[in-house]
Amino acid sequence: MSDRLLSGHEPLDTVLGGGLPADAISIIMGLPGTGKTIIAQQYTFQNGRPDRPAVYFSTVSEPLEKIVRFGQGLDFFDRTAVGRSVLYENLGATVSNDGLEGVTRQITTVLKERHPALIVIDSFKALHAFADSHSEFRRFLHELAGRLGAFPTASLWVGEYEEAEVASLPEFAVADAIVDLTTERIGHRGIRFLTVRKLRGGGFPSGQHAYRLSSSGLHLFPRLADTRIEASYGLGDVRVSSGIPALDDLLAHGYWPGASTLIVGPSGSGKTLMGLHFIFHGAHQGEPGVIASLQENPTQLQRIAAGFGWSLDEPHVEVMYRSPVDIYIDEWAHDLMQAVERTGARRVLVDSLADLRMAAADETRFREFVYSLVQRFSRLDVSIMMTFEVQDLFEAPRLSDSAVSHLSDNVVLLSYLKGQDSIHRSMAVVKSRASHHEPGIRQFLIGHDGIVLADGLLGRSVPDIDAQNPARRPAAHRDP
What we know:
Shape: elongated
Structural class: alpha/beta
């Protein structure tokens, strides 16, 4: 028998270090509506077999009939398994008539007669109401844990516990694993998170992992968080063109492959267009690219591309559009990684980081996310370009406010210049890691061929942001 209890959902099992510990007690905690019963039934149907059934005990929180009725709407609910490999039993009447001692007797009888692979008790917290004292509940808990420990069976105790109760209620000390389901409000949206609070006998990734609930159960999106990578990895040594010849000259013949580039500028300054240059130039050279758009949907994006002679239907170009209204950033990253793997993409455009920033739980999480995203693509030798909108139209913004400029290998600043009777677009390469670049400000035009740089510098320059602050200057990871 496996030493892990599997959920049938690989990302969840991975976060749990290969699965919940088998022949152990695990608690699934969370307030109403977080999906505790769904995930408990997911484990039930995944692990029940005719010779080693899964037994689902209801207590007094929800009637057994209601649990079964709503369970029938789940894709994994198998009517043919009920009564054979999945058994439902009611502890509510037992605890009401015979107290906690009756609960222990009924569970012991099932253990001896059915030899279950899994026992679920939903809700375990509701049993507290039937103890006359704290010490009585502790005695019940000690005896029940002993009975369960005498048999090779896994137990899931489900309850509407709050975070503060983890430190005060005795069942959390007995449990070998604790999985916490929460819903947090970010702006006007609620995002569900799973946190592993305890897991004996194995390691697990820290932090909150976003999840969604559907008729097929719980879908987990493990937190994108890259720690230090000890092993070295190879990077290409042939420059990657930006798609704009004059900009390539400012960048000393383009970007290094696997590099990250941040395009910063106000609305309408040409950020998306610069990204499309990057993607379509690569596609025309046989390098697949993915446009991860959070700004324009495919119809709007096609209209923009068509204005410059491009088409989203061209070979080697894929669009991954997601609405920023209901986005989980880790789910988004999971989808993007899959698109890159499926297409063999060598270039990625993220338009824009500002939308991902709003979807992040806080500023620290956003920075960790961008760092991890950049590191993943660097190891894959995939070049990524990211856009970030700022409010300043005519003055260079404080790039530190963008929060991610120091994480990018290259930073290109777009802005507007005031003329006598008009305004002009301008461009400056602020940073190009491990490479020489021209820091002067250049005027550019947008025509039928896209971005075209005007001749000559404008007599001003933008200092290298890494040179301004040596403490923030990362070690070069590529030879120029």
